[in-house]
Amino acid sequence: PIGEIAMNSRVDVTLIKKAYTPDEIGQLIPTETTRTVSGYIESSSLAEFSSGGENGLRRDKRVLVWTFEYEGEDEIEVGGMRYTIYRVYNNANGKAELYLERRVSNG
Length: 107
Fold this sequence. Notes:
This protein has one helix at residues 46-54; strands at 9-22, 28-43, 61-66, 75-78, 81-90, 95-101. By secondary structure, the protein is mainly β.
């Protein structure tokens, strides 16, 4: 499961977009914009899982959301866990397949 969420189930997900603005001394300060949308959580295909494993990454999760709801966000929160979106595929059914991985920066 992702957090306490079972695979192959509907779930509310929080899409997270980061923007950076300079402060008074020029340091880039991140700000986050979040939106909650309905998604469907699945395991990644065997090929995707194997590809990630070859590169030392754990890439075994994906979330499907409607294509019109995905606006290029970099991160997603599912079941209280934050993930980086490393790849997006717009399928023929009007869904954006968001492929997720956990990174140290995700907390």
